[in-house]
Amino acid sequence: MHKRGIGDLVGGKKADESLDLLSLLGHTMAEPITLENGDISPLFDAPDSRGEQHNLTEILSQGKKVILYFYPKDSTPGCTVQACDFRDDMARLTSHGFQVFGVSKDSAKSHDNFISKQGINFPLLMDEDMAIHQAFGTWRLKKNYGKEYMGCARSTFVIGEDGKLIFARYNVKAKGHVSMLMRELGIDE
């Protein structure tokens, strides 16, 4: 008896036929946008893991600035380091008028576990449909050990009260990123 695996048959196609797995999953390989400092920020209106809605236009109308950072996955080593660095520097960031949001495509349950386990003191936005990832161009082709795949490029955007990007950077390093960001924003350590 021959057992078929995913390598033998996927979506009715044989393994040697051309198959676009990303299309099957609803994701395309379209070239992502690349935002730069000075660009107008894409808008977002998204719930956090607790169901509270966060609308960029409303936040900016309150005179706040927004740090929106994208990370690949809750509770992984690099993402934990980065989230904990934001957590540990939250008092200084909020005292300078910044509101921080983390974004990943993880579920509400995953976000809540991450928040609880690490004592995260800022909202993690829900983006399971990846609308925010697409708007900010953070869902990109990645390479790891010779393999190519689509994934979240760890990225950070700082949005000023006028809705323009003060800081836009893709493929940032997790460790030391928050300290570097605060230096770039003129916030003393």
Word description of this protein:
The chain has seven helices and eleven strands. It is of the alpha+beta class. It has one domain (37-184): Glutaredoxin (3-Layer(aba) Sandwich), CATH 3.40.30.10. The strands form four sheets. The protein has a five-stranded mixed β-sheet. The chain is globular.
Highlighted features:
28% helix; alpha+beta; two-stranded antiparallel ribbon; 5-stranded mixed sheet; 189 residues
Q: How many helices in DSSP terms?
A: 7
Roughly what fraction of the amino acids lie in strands? 25-35%
Could you name the CATH topology?
Glutaredoxin
Largest sheet: 5 strands, mixed
Which structural class fits the helix and strand makeup? alpha+beta
**What general form does the structure show?**
globular
Please give the CATH architecture: 3-Layer(aba) Sandwich
Topology readout:
Blueprint: E1 9-10, E2 13-14, H1 21-24, E3 45-47, E4 53-55, H2 56-61, E5 65-70, H3 77-88, H4 90-95, E6 98-104, H5 108-118, E7 124-126, H6 131-136, E8 139-144, E9 147-152, E10 155-159, E11 165-169, H7 177-184
Parallel strand pairs: 5-6, 6-7
Antiparallel strand pairs: 1-2, 3-4, 5-10, 8-9, 10-11
How would you sum up this structure in a few lines?
The protein is 28% helix and 25% strand. It has 7 helices and 11 strands.
